[in-house]
């Protein structure tokens, strides 16, 4: 086998899709079901603009991924017939306090310099003119932000990769590696031993434990994100509405709204706290008062991988050069899925990657990533 | 057939159980599944004390029913092997505002006169000594209040009645009656026509529509009650905690807490409003702060039958004397289930009922219940 | 109000959609949630060809409805953004016994005369060439048969009607009519009294009970249909496969197969019999052996309205001319949804209906439909 | 900490319960939720007699555990108030073919020698006299076999251990051990590093992967067991009915029957095959024909740990003497839960264990268990 990918979430699947398209033989190993965990729990914003208000190494990848989405979605639909609920209705960032107003101004100014044609400042009246159910506060509209059903997109990458010849082994767990000098030549799994030319570790928040077996300390931790959803009789929103203090409201098909998300660091527990349900609903009703009359649907949680410096790990193992680690996307995993497969495939083929990848190195300077001796 | 009961909730089933025990042949018709609607949605308090703070016609029945429960539970367990989660851990009423303090004093004084041995006034310190997770406020403990799993108790009555020979026809709907002069001799149902000596209408909030076909106007309306449940790692409460403004917290098996309930009049819609989830959690966290860290489980709603004067209907039809109506128990249906079957069976057998039943008459004075001409 | 529709399933909603489009004010009353019962339980075949092998009054409507679907789907998507999973992958009818071979020949010959361009006879080898997972038996392919997700289509009609101004009252029950001489001027409901110029009864299998109140005996009965679904790792089928003895296999999105359906007459009970699950899986594994290795998903049931002569009721009440009854579509309700709204709207407007509607009359000759005196 | 247990299923929890009772400080680490996997999927037979028809090292433990159950259940109920659905209605083994008749005779003779007072041979007529819904075949009744709700019993051990002071860390994963010469002094987990005097590995089918990190090869494999459940209107069975070819029918509360179980070796996949649902229902309807009319409820799977020689591993690590492994109970984990905690606690305290434990040694002779070098 050419490439073995550990992790059947959206990152592993999107890499499998691209690698298989380029003709390599691929196997993906997943310890549970495919497209679970953070990949299915995400609210599905493809918000290249929502996360950054200053220069950041991820911005070029985020913009490139967002731009790539329409074509990727079309390609996946053609291959799999899976509907992923994609649309490009934009994101409305809102300021509900003086402090948020300051931050929004800064955010708006930052993006106005980069993409003036896609950003628009809004007075409270203009906010209500555009989204009549939103509270009248100052806002900024980022017109090209998109969104998808994250679970369906993850499944589309999975089935798209299958259509291109990739094989998936769900309910299979890697518990050790097979070494041959300076190379890792295979993995021991609960479905038997597998050998491969190249191995990619893309296990989200569970990556560090596997990396330990390769004598690599990753400075990562899990961040639980909790969401609730409600349904309404008529459509309340067109755009995603994003306020500070962990509150965004994403309008989905069938008059459904996803309200996210808490950020509870260092928890692998997929339970939802009562206080989080309370807080998310309170914030949502403050921003869109009509949500008070909506029908409560459900609450859930996902465990997202965060790194100490907030930059994903995308790169080769410093010692075992045929092993790659791709993780740490935190809240940007869905957004980056369209480009990650291409970047990693370029690395595998030793092509030039059209992005500056040094900041994503596994041994970048700073607070850690030390190889253990 | 001797007796035909329309309605397979806890009231219809408890009547079927007693009637069958006394040797009559019984058929129960239910348009959906058995033991659904309000019977399965209730929090399951058997709180004879919680609902009343002044004289009320229901008090004698409530106390008698509460006293009857231990024996009824034992009998049903013997017959059906169904566990109903009964316990007698008491009810702690709490005052969180000055207004509630006044009401609690009145409530306590009322019950102290009736059952001094079962009531105890508590200082904030005493409240916390008894229930260490409850906020330190003045309270009163009603030591003999009990609780059950309402759904399981409803099923136990259903299966207990089956064990005594009653037949149940679920998914069967009555759409008309068969008259013979001044008697109703049968019903037309979606499972065919059935004839009976006596007919009992016990359809909860859906009773008025059927009563109309018997030219009887009942002054009733539905009141939706919404609940949420949470689970905790360790037990937070022993007693049920009851505060004003529609908030009670009922500790169930497996460290589960049921938090209820809203009261939305005139709604048959079994959806849960987002604002209700928010409000119930807010109140619960205020009274038992550790609930903030509990795990959210789910939310649900039930439709309870309320009468205009707040007194159930239990009695014979003014014109068709072999027809009886038993409904309108609002929040007291589970509590009254142990005694209702006996009272109604006595009526059917033309025995003396050991309670003053005039206030429950279908044609009692006041604002309605007029027979249509 | 111009038009009041009782019944919020796919028939009621499709009528509401068309009536609202033509400018009338419409209210739809539904006693439970919208788009439930048979409308959400159906497998979603739009098989104009699968049901008939001889002349039948429904054939012109079925073909017209099937032809109308692509445009209707597009219109609903534009209005509601709801994906209904429509595709036009055809239907493969299979003969697994000598008796079925005879029937298939007859069926094929019948349709070859009507639509030679859309029918193709297949040898066992050709069957396997087209659908490699199907057992090698003689078959016939009906190339233009379509399918949808029935529940989503029903919701699309509901929300499409809302977009055109129709109002829906879920959890509202009609329990009586208001008469004024030879007209029905309104209905009494659990949400209050409503008046309308015209009233349409479209309550599926529950229609006869309401019709009784209008002194109309409909010769109808419920037929429970049970289905199971399975999922597979790779796609097993493109076309719907239809064999005799109540077995069809409908390929859905995400490698899901719906296997239907039993036909249990005179049952309103929405439970699934163990023997039906057993039988459906046995037949499916016989026809598509690889289903043995599929993952079992779930089982469910719907209650379909059937008439004694197998022809739906679509027409005016013989006495109350402003009341219309539209029901009895049995297994063809989803298929006929695209045309039913138009036909009924034409009737309401007293336009010429472009179909021969006498066979659908409520008082047609034969075994019943007598007006009661 | 005195004792650290890896694995929060019924084995780990029952050890935690006993160890905590004896006064040691205990922490249990579980990578998912507590009481999941095989512990919650089991049908809950406590059938000391059903599994063996010849001498086997497990028989003394099985009989002792069965005898201990009534007292353990009472103790857990007292501590936790959790109902576990225990009863002692016996097991009816049935022979439906000539081959099974021979095996049943052998089985009966074996147990008649050991416990003549608890075994009874039954003619077909006697079978039907005792269980009137069972097919008239030869049978044998093992009168003291018991059963529980496996999931509830597992939770009762968990919460019983908590009540005795044990701490549980759900959603926590062990990914490495900390060594100090010939001792393992702690574990690295996703919730941080933990140190303990003694460490017990009780991870069911997932144990071998962890054992590998301690240089121990366990000859084990997973065996998936699939079950279905149905409900009936009246009780069909009193005793558990056990026929060959993987079919047992266990009567539960509320007229529910659990039908199990397939045995699919080498699968960690918790999906249920369509063919298994088909096969389980077919066998159940053959043995208890009235099951054909029962209501299908659901299907599920659990992954059970099996060893190569069929004997569990219960013993100390050959090299790291403060590490113990307890796993491989296959279909006997629930049955053995009442005694396993005591046996392991005795081992930890270096007391004499009142059973012959050599056959359970991790390094027993035969086909493996070799320590890796």
Structure described in brief:
The structure is a homotetramer of 373-residue chains. Chain A has 373 residues and is of the alpha+beta class.
Structure explained in plain terms:
Chains A, B, C, D: InterPro entries: FAD-dep_OxRdtase, FAD/NAD-bd_sf, G3P_DH_FAD-dep, Gly_oxidase_ThiO. Chains A, B, C, D: Pathway: Polyol metabolism; glycerol degradation via glycerol kinase pathway; glycerone phosphate from sn-glycerol 3-phosphate (aerobic route): step 1/1; Cofactor biosynthesis; thiamine diphosphate biosynthesis. Chains A, B, C, D: Residues 2-347 form the FAD dependent oxidoreductase domain. Four copies of one chain form a homotetramer. The first copy, chain A, has 373 residues and is an alpha+beta fold. Chain A folds into two domains: 3-77 and 150-218 and 309-360, FAD/NAD(P)-binding domain; 88-144 and 221-307, 2-Layer Sandwich (D-Amino Acid Oxidase, Chain A, domain 2), CATH 3.30.9.10. Chain A has helices at residues 10-21, 38-41, 58-80, 98-114, 124-130, 150-163, 207-212, 274-287, 333-348; strands at 3-6, 26-29, 45-46, 91-94, 119-122, 139-142, 146-147, 167-169, 174-180, 183-189, 192-195, 198-201, 220-231, 240-243, 247-252, 256-260, 264-265, 295-307, 313-316, 323-327. In chain A, strands 4, 5, 6, 13, 14, 15, 16, 17 and 18 form a nine-stranded mixed β-sheet that branches. In chain A, strands 8-2-1-12-20-19 form a six-stranded mixed β-sheet. The longest helix of chain A has 23 residues, at 58-80. The model of chain A has no long low-confidence stretch (mean pLDDT 93). Chains in contact: A-B, A-C, A-D, B-C, B-D, C-D. Chains A and D meet through helix 7 of A and helix 7 of D.
């Amino acid at each position: 086998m050419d490439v073995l990918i550990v992790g059947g979430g959206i990152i592993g699947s999107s890499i499998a899709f691209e690698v298989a398209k380029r003709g390599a033989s691929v196997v993906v190993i997943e310890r549970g079901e495919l497209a679970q965990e953070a990949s299915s729990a995400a609210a599905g914003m493809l918000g290249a603009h929502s996360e950054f208000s200053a220069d950041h190494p991820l911005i070029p990848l985020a913009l490139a991924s967002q731009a790539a989405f329409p074509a990727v979605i079309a390609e996946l639909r053609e291959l799999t017939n899976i509907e992923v609920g994609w649309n490009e209705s934009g994101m409305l960032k809102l300021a509900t306090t003086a402090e948020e107003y300051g931050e929004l101004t800064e955010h708006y100014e930052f993006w106005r310099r980069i993409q003036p044609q896609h950003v628009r400042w809004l007075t409270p009246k203009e906010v209500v003119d555009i989204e009549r159910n939103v509270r009248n506060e100052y806002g900024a509209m980022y017109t090209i932000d998109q969104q998808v059903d994250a679970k369906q997109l993850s499944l589309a990458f999975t089935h798209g990769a299958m259509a291109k010849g990739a094989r998936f082994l769900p309910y299979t767990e890697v518990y050790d590696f097979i070494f041959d000098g300076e190379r890792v030549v295979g993995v021991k799994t609960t479905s038997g031993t597998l050998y491969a030319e190249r191995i990619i570790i893309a296990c989200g928040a569970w990556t560090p434990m596997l990396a330990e077996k390769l004598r690599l300390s990753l400075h990562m931790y899990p961040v639980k994100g909790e969401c609730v959803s409600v349904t309404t009789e008529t459509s309340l929103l067109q755009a995603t509405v994003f306020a500070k203090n962990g509150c965004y409201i994403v309008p989905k098909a069938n008059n459904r709204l996803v309200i996210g998300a808490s950020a509870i660091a260092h928890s692998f527990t997929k339970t939802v706290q009562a206080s989080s349900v309370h807080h998310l609903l309170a914030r949502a009703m403050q921003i869109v008062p009509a949500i008070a009359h909506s029908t409560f649907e459900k609450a859930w949680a996902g465990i997202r991988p965060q790194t100490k410096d907030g930059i994903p790990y995308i790169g080769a193992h410093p010692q075992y050069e045929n092993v790659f680690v791709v993780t740490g996307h935190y809240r940007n995993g869905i957004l980056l899925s369209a480009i990650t497969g291409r970047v990693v495939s370029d690395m595998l083929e030793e092509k030039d990657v059209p992005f500056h990848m040094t900041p994503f190195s596994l041994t970048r300077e700073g607070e850690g990533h030390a190889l253990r001796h």
